[in-house]
User: What shape does this take?
Amino acid sequence: MIRDAFDAVRVRKNFPALNQKIYGKPLVYLDNAATTQKPKSVIDALEQYYSSENANIHRGIYYLSQQATNAYEGVRARVRQFLNARSSEEIIFVRGATEGINLVAQSYGRTYVKEGDEIVVSVMEHHSNIVPWQMLCDEAGARLRVIPINDEGEILTGEYENLLNERTKLVSIAHVSNVIGTLNPVKEMVEKAHGRGIPVLVDGAQAVPHLKVDVQDLDCDFLVFSGHKMFGPTGVGVLYGKSELLEKMPPYQGGGDMISSVTFEKTVYNKIPYKFEAGTPHIAGVIGLGRAIDYLNEIGMEEIAAYEEELLRVATEALGRVPGLRLIGTARKKSAIVSFVLKEVHPHDIGTILDRQGVAIRAGHHCAMPLMQRFGVPATARASFAFYNTKEDVDALCRALGKVREVFK
Ligand code: PLP
Assistant: This one.
């Protein structure tokens, strides 16, 4: 039984995009790992900002600019609280998880990673947590080492420990896999890395919207996430970094706001976090992200996690009854993401037929081609859930998969 304490049907009403028909069928939106829909409060915050609060921040001496600055900096404080960071200066606004990882690769990486050094990632990483490290390794003459997984899609922790050595300069690991939903033991992994003095970046893109993430508890050195995957706007995200590391890192980009003084002889950089926020940021996006955090706080991350866990159980059971369906990724600890293949049907055909039934899922490699290779499939179909999904959505998914069977019998 799905917990009654959480009323997904009522919550859905706050998301205008969910209340529409696609090809005459009610939309069943199951592509939340790609991006989430937005609550009315977030949409309203964007409209309100552009209608009556729009001004550039930090430099204005007039009322509107000060209001916009307060709103922007107020969100930094709310993100700090949401992640339980020690200080707001540890919160850097970026475009999203991808930019956050690139910032660390270019700033921390180019400073501290030298020829012969190693960076450790896992085989289940999103390309965003592979390619920036490959670029760095190519430039520095360093090497990318890859943690293997078992057939269920779980990190082989012994293999991970074996990879750590005196050449390892950083571990960068997804908290939750965007393809198979595996919830990685990041706290234990951080502990192991720290035992050897190695910092750890956690890619929280698929974790922060779905469970309570506490950076002090994880003790990670960096963590990134994207606003659009947590019911906020696109084009905004966060890099959390421990202040002692951020202080030592050079700026990522140069420009306005990241300086305290400029002459042609010498530029003095601003303090953190501004040192890493060159140029006019996505002010409206940050304000919208703040509203999304308020929305999540109102529901409660523990409530969300418990509800989605139950939804995952229901979905896994229901999909297990679909003839010819093979689940890819059956880890013991998972977030509400299910990847699967159907015997003799290409995942893109599954996606197309489901779309005609109003069911939006994703088919493809999900920006994780090495993981596809690991499981020996070119692509999977993926349904990814959020707290506004219901058991009825799972039923609709299974009914639509029945249609796929009819077409391909
Ligand atoms: N990391 C993971 C685990 C993801 O799932 C994604 C997006 O799907 C990203 C990073 C990149 O996020 P963005 O494209 O918002 O920067």
Q: What stands out?
A: The chain has a mean pLDDT of 96. The pocket of pyridoxal-5'-phosphate is lined by residues 33, 96-98, 126, 128-129, 174, 178, 203, 205-206, 226 (CB under 6 Å). The radius of gyration is 22 Å. Residues 43-298 form a domain with the Aspartate Aminotransferase; domain 2 fold (CATH 3.40.640.10).
